[in-house]
Amino acid sequence: MKPLDGFRVLDLTRFLSGPYCTMVLAELGADVIKVEQPGSGDDSRRLAPKVNGESYPFGMPNRSKRSVSLDLKDPRGTSAFLRMAEQADLVIENFRPGVVRRLGIDHDTLSAANPALLYCSISGYGQTGPYRDRPGFDIMAQGSAGFMRMTGHPGGRPAKVGIAINDIAAGATAIYSILAAELARRTTGEGQYIDISLVDAGLAWTVWESGAYFGNGELPAATGTRHRRSTPYQAYRTADGYVTIGANNDRLWRRLVLDALHRPEWLDDPRFATLPARMEHIDALQDAIEEVTADRTTAEWIEALDKAGVPGGPVLRYDEALADPHVVARGMIAEVDHPIIGPMRTIAPPAKFSSVDFAVRGPAPWLGQHTRRVLAEAGLGEAEVDALCADGVAYDAHPERTER
Fold first, then answer.
1. Which residues contact 146 (CB under 8 A, 6 or more apart)?
2. Exposure string (b/e) for 271-293, b if CB count within 10 Å is 16 or more?
3. Which of 220, 306, 368, 404 could crosslink 69 through cysteines, CB 3.0-4.6 Å?
4. Phi, psi (5° rounding) for residue 347?
């Protein structure tokens, strides 16, 4: 049994923030029904690479779900959705503010018929404030939250984080907010409206940066791989790449200097003797360390650091990270069989529970794969569904593959 068995979600989200959230809910047991526009579906379905016409990137955050394709701009599509919403526990959307009200599927409308409904909206800037109507993708949120001014190397152009960090932050914020709302609902029976902003979610992760700013007015700037408060704590050049070293307290500093780098004279060097001194002379410290590390390979340095009890590790390419024996041993690569793509690999859920079943439940659906089945579950008759499909209000991209 999964924690969210019996919890039904109508997922109107696209791209990444919402789909990431609902993927996690699905793999915790929720019945996630992805509601998509006929013909095109989620915008991420167009992303390459494609296999047999199906997007592989779309398949990553949309696995373990069902797909219903309805034209919500058609009153008949809206009517069908309203019937589905009467049976739902959660509706989640990431349209621009105001869109769901124009479609007649906003929180006030749906909760009038289903008072216990949870409703979550994700948008770039939130449902209130002067920027509420601005469209906002991850890169706009990274810029607005200050991330692009604190990422990259000093003196360089503004840089985005290598992954869609604000999208994932918003999705993660939505996950714990929805779970909190569901716990409250199980006690009170009351529904809840949840407003998530990509910018807000990102700002909430600036824990140490906000402490430095509020405490001393310090603006976080780009530092490359360096830590803002301690050193040595960065990537250093080796004979064949880079090694990360985290000797960020005096005990680890002594181990690094004496047992790994074999430079005991640094303990008495006034530039490096204390943490404040090391921070003041961080460029000189980097040069000194790299004079040593450049003579041996990354693997040799990791062995030496491990032996000395100093945290260290490689700086891998993504393909190397996925093939790393530790990642493989942790079961972080899962395999699923997609009905059109065929065998697929995906990133598995990261949490390991002692007894909770938390795993990939199945592949992402093709567009409209479960349209007929879900509409029947909502009480629509076969003739009614046939008419909706014939008129393009309901849709199944592969009706020849669908069991009736």
1. 206, 209, 220
2. ebeeeeebeebbeebbebbeeeb
3. 368
4. -80, 125
Amino acid at 68: V
Reading the block at residue 332, the tokens are: 């972080």
For the chain, give the percent of residues with pLDDT over 90. Answer: 99
Q: Which of 10, 16, 52, 61 is nearest to 32 (CA)?
A: 10
- Asked whether the bond before 49 is cis by omega within 30 degrees of 0, the reply is yes
- Per-residue pLDDT tens over the stretch 235-247: 999 999 999 999 9
Domains 8-204+332-401 and 233-315 in one fold: no
Domain boundaries, the chain: 8-204+332-401, 233-315
Per the CB < 8 A criterion, the answer to whether 374 and 81 are in contact is: no
Distance (Å, whole) CA 375 – CA 66: 12
- Give pLDDT tens digits for 344-364: 999 999 999 999 999 999 999
For 366, counting Cβ atoms within 10 Å of its Cβ (0-12 exposed, 13-18 middle, 19+ buried), the class is buried
Annotated catalytic sites, by residue?
A: 167
List, for residues 56-107, the tens digit of each pLDDT value.
999 999 999 999 999 999 999 999 999 999 999 999 999 999 999 999 999 9
CA 122/CA 144 separation, integer angstroms: 16
The two structure tokens encoding residue 268: 């008495």
pTM for this model (two decimals)? 0.96
Which of 344, 306, 297, 249 shows the shortest CA–CA distance to 54? 344
User: What CA–CA distance (Å, rounded) separates 236 from 253?
Assistant: 15
Dihedral of alpha carbons 133, 134, 136, 140, sign: negative
E-strand ranges in 170-310 read 192-197, 233-237, 242-246
Amino acid residing at 337: D
Superfamily of domain 233-315 in CATH is formyl-coa transferase, domain 3 (3.30.1540.10)
The pLDDT value recorded for residue 402 is 84
Angle, CA of 114, 116 and 117, to the nearest 5° = 70
